[in-house]
Design goal:
The protein has one domain. Helix content is 42%, strand content 6%. The protein has nine helices and four strands. The chain has helices at 2-5, 31-44, 76-79, 82-90, 106-120, 123-134, 141-153, 168-174, 188-196, and strands at 54-56, 71-74, 176-178, 181-183. Strands 1-2 form a two-stranded antiparallel sheet. Strands 3-4 form a two-stranded antiparallel sheet. The longest helix has 15 residues, at 106-120. Its EC number is 4.6.1.-.
């Protein structure tokens, strides 16, 4: 899970400090436990798109400027769910060009908190929170949530220290432009929003 491994150096100064666990208290997590946890998280994801809520038209491979839209249908009810709607609210908060400082407003910080609260209210993150606390990886739920905020929204440099221009969330969910090429954007919600707005043209796949 990327949310467990993406870390951001530095930050905007708005991320609350993360309480430290007592040295020696965390218990080792085995590969078998991680495999079991990943299956449990997948099974617990009742928030994902269900049958008929998301339809894509992959077409053939190769470029085709006359290709139909990639997203044939996206359910409005799906996008209205708290995690989806609050994710969409965040997607206009970022400067995509690397090398330019990200500037967070109070409203954007509020949107970050609302998205994180909605995500933590899902069965997936509730299960993950119970697991990491049971293993002593964090001293409290508050510590876990503070570090999750730092992992997702803590700012760091993707331009060799030139600027605090990136975060785990921006790279994965929004996408960035570095040296003229798109980087990140591993997120269908952003892709369908860009296509709907006329800012993305699907040319097939390779």
């Amino acid at each position: 899970l990327w949310l467990l491994v993406v870390t951001g150096a530095g930050g905007s100064g708005e991320v609350p400090p993360v309480p430290q666990a007592v040295p020696g208290s965390p218990r080792a997590v085995s590969d078998a436990e991680l495999r079991e946890l990943s299956e449990q998280l997948l099974a617990a994801d009742s928030n994902r798109a269900g049958p008929g809520q998301l339809e894509v038209n992959l077409q053939g491979s190769g470029s085709n400027s006359a290709a139909p839209r990639l997203f044939s249908y996206v359910s409005p009810e799906l996008l209205a769910r708290p995690t989806f709607s609050r994710l969409l609210a965040l997607l206009d908060n970022y400067e995509p060009q690397t090398g330019r400082d990200e500037k967070e407003t109070a409203e954007e910080q509020r949107e970050q908190k609302e998205f994180l609260d909605a995500a933590l209210d899902t069965p997936v993150l509730a299960l993950l929170e119970r697991f990491v606390l049971s293993k002593g990886l964090y001293p409290s739920a508050e510590a876990f949530r503070a570090e999750l905020h730092s992992m997702w929204f803590g700012l760091y440099s993707r331009s060799s220290g030139k600027a605090l221009d990136s975060s785990g969330f921006e790279h994965v969910f929004h996408g960035e432009v570095k040296k003229g090429a798109v980087s990140g954007c591993h997120n269908w919600v952003q892709l369908q929003a860009l296509e709907r707005a006329g800012r993305l043209e699907y040319l097939g796949y390779t």
